[in-house]
Design brief:
By secondary structure, the protein is of the alpha+beta class. The chain has five helices and two strands; from the N terminus they run ααβαααβ. 52% of the residues lie in helices and 19% in strands. The longest helix has 15 residues.
């Protein structure tokens, strides 16, 4: 439907995300920023999110939300319908994330 990532999205994916994807990487980046703390990887389960919730969540993410907001209502519904069609019946969403706890 015409979406292309803004330059910051590609920069984030290629530079920042790999450095922060592990607990060790997060601690290293934090130390370089002058923070002290510890990091761990946690898994968060979202058992109640259905297909409509998942599509809304993804279309609301920072990299795509401005594009979605620029669409006319009919275009937005068309995009949502196509995303739901492609997603099908989703499995339970489990997100792994690095959590950094700073000491002050």
């Amino acid at each position: 439907m015409g979406w292309t990532p803004d330059p910051w999205v590609d920069e984030f994916r290629s530079a920042a995300a790999p450095r922060l994807a592990t607990a060790r990487g997060a601690v290293s980046a934090a130390r370089k920023a002058g923070l002290r703390g510890e990091a761990s990887v946690v898994e968060v389960v979202f058992p109640d999110l259905g297909a409509t919730d998942l599509v809304a969540w993804r279309l609301g993410m920072a990299g795509v939300a401005p594009f979605v907001a620029s669409l006319l209502p009919d275009q937005r519904r068309q995009l949502e319908d196509r995303a739901l069609e492609l997603l099908g019946e989703p499995e339970v969403l489990i997100r792994r994330m690095v959590v950094f706890r700073a000491r002050t």
